[in-house]
Specification:
CATH architecture of the largest domain: 3-Layer(aba) Sandwich
Largest sheet: 9 strands, mixed
Number of domains: 3
Radius of gyration: 23 Å
Strand content: 15-25%
């Protein structure tokens, strides 16, 4: 009997995430899985993201019923999928979850493990896990919400225990799908295709999907409607308007699109290091005033300076775990030092591209101070030509213009910086700092 298309897709995607360090959210949007029915694609998404969010808890649960510590990847993924469906998905019959997990192992040519998978999952089903009492420490929160303890302890130190708990809770929930529209006509078109939108919680121009599948619409395929977190949409708005704009590390292009829409008469240069990501950037950004360059920002060819520069650097991504839960299982604390070193190099190089009186916005989607305040403060110590501008004024400007609809603007600030936190704000965790060259 064949495995359901949804579970077959989830199994293959989870294997690729484990073997190739791929990102599940990108794989789920790949054309191959677009052939699934809406229902099957929805179930595959729920299983994939659920398994990744609760991976360590599932492994602990499975570990109660086996003394074997290492499994082949195919067996490990099938066990996690089965355990997740049995314990956390009420709508899935236990019998179906066990049967299809066994079939997945068979089809993966691991037939010798079928009896083992069947026996372990039956034990999981026979003794459901008891709900644990609310945690009151960082380690307790980490254990309860399937996060690495070292990460939650860092968040407690930086933002307090209550905020750390809110971040972890938000990471484990399905996030709202925030949408960036090319124009108002897109909204009516999406409605005709069964997608119901509601106003954004942070930005007046943003929308959120209330019902329907945006990825199956013509507007999405043609790039006129894009999925982009509201904080990600906010960041380029803080840079203001310019005549000549540099967008460093520009792929995948969401912020570039916002910059181009905001500065239609400006000359915009979008730089991306990796050739394949630069090709994707060219396809996504259709504005005629954007030039895409494949280059390293740290060694750009000579060119006239820019009055506005966006430096959205590669980072750990710890502010985006609701969308990319696999990050928390790949990241090690030592990795933060490598990120910081590269970020400092990129920022220093970008600062040399700013004209007198020009502005630079540094941003990350990380919650870690080493990648944020520490990088900016190091750069300011090394240059007397730049000063830090409080972002309070920029947020007030956007609020007065009706572009920022979040009322508690003070909560978006941490000193002079922008600092959004998942669970505290209705978006991913983003950091931004605004510098001006004297």
């Amino acid at each position: 009997m064949p495995v359901s298309p949804a579970r077959a897709a989830a199994f293959e995607i989870l294997l690729r995430v484990e073997r190739e360090d791929a990102y599940a959210s990108e794989l789920l949007l790949a054309p191959r899985w677009g052939k699934l029915s809406r229902e099957d694609h929805g179930l595959a998404t729920v299983i994939v993201m659920g398994v990744l969010r609760w991976q360590v808890k599932l492994d602990q649960l499975l570990g109660q019923w086996t003394t074997k510590r290492k499994f082949d990847p195919e067996v490990r993924v099938a066990l996690r999928m089965g355990a997740y469906q049995i314990t956390l998905l009420d709508r899935i019959p236990t019998r179906a979850a066990i049967f299809e997990s066994v079939e997945l192992v068979k089809q993966a040519r691991k037939r010798s493990a079928t009896g083992f998978v069947n026996a372990v999952l039956r034990k999981v089903a026979a003794k459901p896990a008891r709900p644990s009492p609310p945690a009151k420490t960082a380690k307790g929160i980490a254990a309860q919400t399937a996060h690495p303890a070292w990460l939650v302890e860092r968040w407690e130190k930086a933002y307090g225990l209550e905020a750390a708990q809110a971040i972890c809770a938000a990471d484990q929930e399905v996030p709202a799908t925030a949408v960036r529209l090319q124009d108002l006509a897109c909204a009516y078109e999406l409605q005709a295709e069964g997608v119901t939108l509601q106003p954004g919680a942070l930005l007046g121009a943003a929308c959120r999907v209330l019902q329907g599948d945006l990825t199956r619409t013509a507007a999405f395929r043609e790039g006129r409607a894009g999925i982009q977190d509201e904080a990600s949409q906010l960041v380029p708005l803080l840079l203001g308007e310019g005549q000549r704009i540099l967008d460093c590390c520009a792929a995948p292009g969401g912020k570039t699109i916002v910059l181009a829409a905001r500065n239609q008469q400006a000359q915009i240069v979008a730089v991306e290091l990796h050739a394949h990501r630069a090709r994707t950037l060219r396809q996504r950004v259709t504005a005629t005033n954007v030039e895409v360059i494949t280059a390293d920002v740290r060694s750009l060819p000579p060119q006239p300076p820019f009055d506005r520069v966006l430096v959205d650097v590669p980072c750990s991504g710890t502010g985006t775990l609701a969308h990319h839960p696999e990050i928390k299982w790949r990241l090690a604390e030592d990795d933060l030092h490598d990120f910081r070193r590269r970020q400092a190099e990129i920022l220093q190089a970008a600062m040399s591209q700013v004209t007198r009186g020009g502005r630079l916005l540094y941003s990350t989607c990380s919650l870690e101070p080493e990648e944020n305040e520490a990088v900016v403060e190091q750069a300011l110590m090394g240059s007397r030509e730049f000063s830090l501008l409080p972002l309070e004024q920029e947020l007030a400007r956007l609020r007065e213009a009706g572009e920022l609809v979040w009322r508690d603007t003070a909560s978006l600030l941490r000193g002079a910086y922008l600092r959004t936190l998942p669970g505290v704000h209705p978006c991913d965790g983003f950091f931004a700092a605004l510098l001006e060259r004297r």
